[in-house]
Amino acid sequence: MNFPFFIARRYLFSKKSTHAINIISAISAIGVAVATMALVVVLSAFNGFSDLVASFFTAFDPQLKVVPVAGKSVAADDPVLLKVKAMPEVEVATECVEDMALAIYQDKQAMVNIKGVEDNFDSLTNIRNILYGDGSYELHAANLQYGIIGIRLAQDLGTGVKWQDYLHIYAPQREGQIDMTNLESGFVEDSLVSPGVVFQVKQAKYDKDYIITSIDFARTLFNRQGELSALELRMKPDTDIGRMKAKVQEAVGEKYRVLDRYEQQADTFKIMQIEKFFAYVFLTFILLVACFNIIGSLSMLIIDKKDDVVTLRNLGATDKQITQIFLFEGRMISFAGAVIGIGLGLLLCWLQQTYGLVRLGDSSGNFVVDAYPISVHPWDIVLIFITVIIVGWLAVWYPVRAISKKLTRREP
């Protein structure tokens, strides 16, 4: 058995001559445990919100999205895109034309994203699951063009779920110059009617800004006949999305980018990751402060065991071994705090997941979820454990080494 570790273990559990040392050692372990528990709970809460947002995107975003690297649109009959559509793993492929426009209903107006899609868009996504109203999913009928708008946009424009008048849409002309004496000539105007439903993704980006309509309407409005701004794909069941993404990217080359759902919402998830990182950094600093208690405990232990140090040196122990005894003592306190803290953190996460102890509001239905979402990621637990061990080791290494060496030099 490792000699310094054996002695350190005896010191940790043995009764000291000064009872305060035992109390300070316990307080040190508790401080490390509390900081560790906070890391587990806070990082799991960030994971929970991230997973919650990701679950909303699945009702609207495609599994894979092929977009041009340069420009807003490309030819719809590009042989590369036709090759992608014909891949055996592709179950549904939908052409999309998307751009900004001005929507006006009666005396209210708003800048919106017009997303024109093919009729199979409901097979590509789960949009039917997020529709509300007495109507049905329709994009066009005879000469009528329908527009399915987000619920927040319906509130802003005052349309309600089913509007009676036309929703007028204006988009700037792609070609030519604007005549300042006749500004209306610089815009293309068209109108949409209501199918009697609105959608709710529960994300402001969509619910407040988007209108889903037919691709023919969008192509006419934006003068993009025979073009598309994105090709959206749904794979057959049990298809490996990561592998398929690489395959499609290889097929389309450098002219196009292939985006999965997380990359389609890169800005949102990047912000969440940055917030999670800063929370991790701040809590690590708190953990470092908690580890300073270990230094105090070890300093008192070194003074308490100065007679033992003389005995050990007479028995042949080197200064390095004596220093390692107290370093092992600090590491064991850090290890105990890490294990206890992770255990308590996981227990709190389980209680929150099961019973929703910490709620978002007093009344149900005011928020997307009633209680704070929690999602424990195994790699986060590994990271937290390693962080506690490293911070605990770094916090005690130099002070203990300096104090123990100073003490051993004084002894004859």
Topology, pairings included?
Layout: H1 3-13, H2 19-57, E1 64-68, E2 74-75, H3 79-85, E3 90-105, E4 108-117, H4 121-124, E5 131-133, E6 140-141, E7 144-145, E8 148-150, H5 151-157, E9 167-172, E10 187-192, E11 197-199, H6 204-207, E12 210-214, H7 215-222, E13 227-228, E14 230-235, H8 241-252, E15 256-260, H9 261-264, H10 266-304, H11 306-314, H12 319-355, H13 378-410
Parallel strand pairs: 4-12, 8-11
Antiparallel strand pairs: 1-14, 1-15, 2-13, 3-4, 3-9, 3-14, 5-11, 6-7, 8-12, 9-10
Helix pairs in contact: 1-12, 2-10, 2-12, 2-13, 10-12, 10-13, 12-13
Notable characteristics:
alpha+beta, 412 residues, 18% strand, 52% helix, single chain
Task: Write a structural description.
The protein is α+β, with helices and mostly antiparallel strands. Helices cover 52% and strands 18% of the residues. It is built from 13 helices and 15 strands. The strands form three sheets. Strands 1, 3, 4, 5, 8, 9, 10, 11, 12, 14 and 15 form an eleven-stranded mixed beta sheet that branches. It has a two-stranded antiparallel ribbon with strand order 2-13. A two-stranded antiparallel ribbon has the order 6-7. Helix 10 (266-304) runs parallel beside helix 13 (378-410). It is elongated, with a radius of gyration of 32 Å.
